[in-house]
Design brief:
The chain contains 10 helices and 18 strands. It is α+β, with helices and mostly antiparallel strands and 358 residues long. The protein folds into 2 domains: 3-129, 3-Layer(aba) Sandwich (Creatine Amidinohydrolase, Chain A, domain 1), CATH 3.40.350.10; 135-347, Creatine Amidinohydrolase (Alpha-Beta Complex), CATH 3.90.230. The strands form 6 sheets. A 6-stranded mixed β-sheet has the order 4-3-2-1-5-6. A 3-stranded antiparallel β-sheet has the order 7-8-11, covered by helices on one side. A hairpin with a 2-residue loop joins strand 9 and strand 10 (224-225). Helix 7 packs across helix 8 (165-178) and helix 9 (239-258) packs antiparallel against helix 10 (265-281). The longest helix is centred in the middle third of the chain and has 24 residues, at 135-158. The radius of gyration is 23 Å and the shape is elongated. It binds manganese (II) ion.
């Protein structure tokens, strides 16, 4: 069965479960998921047996070429959604309550003046479907990851002490784009020395400080993101830095070895957290261990202390990214992506993790 036919079958099964006749989808990532077309400024309307993708004149030609043939491509208002609903006897419409602004929902409601339509929040319906990656989705993510790894290899060769954090980030991004990435999968994190204690620090216009240099970055292929972090040392690592790095790596390897279908997300996080805390870094690992990656850089599922009884399921992709951050001193993080299978997990990242001194 074609990829999109299978996707629509699953989508309509979920629509039936929550009792909506149609869904209105306008967030970029869900729009791409349900139309196969990346339109930052359009929307899709999908009923139990029909689908429309609305693109304005800036995007309509691309929509005709790229959107799934399961959708009818049309200009806004041709036909209007209320007229579609009247024709198709649509009474309930699901909307993206996590994404749609209050103003957009209000505008949508008002367009139905006189029609009896009920609006139902979709909650996590689309994000839950998106957790499970098909082979072609995994292939796109891996292709993006291969580009990012090549960029890491490249930066280790060309990095010099007189570069600024911004320059290092720019070099990574330029290399990735030159080698097939649509764009950086998020704003590249590149923090050195004392700034490496900021998990999501913004690159500064200052020359690289001696000490840890953390680079967290990714490429994008077919709309799919990759995510990796490596921490290297500018100059030489002292024994405290080596101990900290080894602790992060040990926590990362132990958590990675435990990832498998049926394991509790909470427990995977705890494996890494316990190693870090018991090594004397209690409270220095402030974020969750990992997250899903796909059409969004951060998506479901999460590996964190807040995930309750949630368990990992085959087909999910998760990052494993423990870190230790000591304010005013330095920090370190190591991040890979894994694909969960029935028997364990495949490591999607192919990049060395021993401490590199540059
Ligand atoms: Mn990440």
């Amino acid at each position: 069965m074609e990829k999109m036919e299978k996707r629509y079958e699953l989508l309509r099964r979920e629509m039936g479960k929550i009792g909506v006749d149609a869904i209105y989808v306008s967030s970029a990532e869900n729009h791409q998921y349900v139309t196969d077309f990346d339109n930052p400024d359009g929307w899709a309307f999908i009923t139990m047996d029909k689908a429309w993708v609305y693109a304005d004149p800036r995007y309509i030609e691309a929509a005709r070429a790229e959107a799934t043939s399961l959708c009818k491509v049309c200009l806004p208002g041709e036909p209007t959604i209320p007229s579609v609903c009247a024709e198709e006897s649509i009474r309930t419409i699901g909307y993206e309550d996590f994404k749609l602004t209050c103003a957009e929902l209000e505008r949508l409601r008002k367009s139905f003046e006189g029609q009896d339509i009920r609006f139902v929040p979709l909650g996590g319906m689309l994000t839950s479907l998106r957790e499970f990656k098909t082979d072609d989705e995994v292939a796109s993510i891996v292709a993006a990851q291969r580009i990012a790894e090549a960029a890491f290899d490249h930066i280790c060769k060309v990095l010099t002490y007189d570069m600024t954090e911004v320059e290092v980030a720019a070099e990574l991004e330029y290399y990735m784009k030159k080698h097939g990435s649509q764009k950086p999968s998020f704003d590249t994190i590149c923090v050195s020395g004392t700034a490496s204690s900021r998990p999501h620090g913004v690159p500064r216009n200052v020359k690289l400080e001696k000490g840890f240099l953390t680079m967290d970055f990714g490429a994008m292929v077919n709309g799919y993101h990759s995510d990796m972090t490596r921490t290297v040392v500018i100059g030489k690592a002292d024994s405290d830095m080596k101990r900290l790095y080894d602790t992060v790596l040990k926590a990362q390897l132990a958590a990675e070895a435990a990832v498998a279908e049926g394991k509790k997300n909470f427990d995977i996080d705890k494996i890494a957290r316990d190693i870090i805390y018991s090594a004397g870094y209690e409270g220095k690992f402030g974020h969750g261990l990992g997250h899903g990656v796909g059409l969004e850089i951060h998506e479901e599922p999460r590996l964190s202390p807040k995930t309750g009884d949630e368990v990992l399921k085959a087909g999910q992709i998760v990052t494993v990214e423990p870190g230790i951050y000591i304010e005013g001193l330095y920090g370190c993080r190591i991040e890979d992506m894994m694909y969960v299978t029935e028997t364990g997990a495949d490591l999607l990242t192919d990049c060395p993790k021993e401490l590199i001194e540059l």
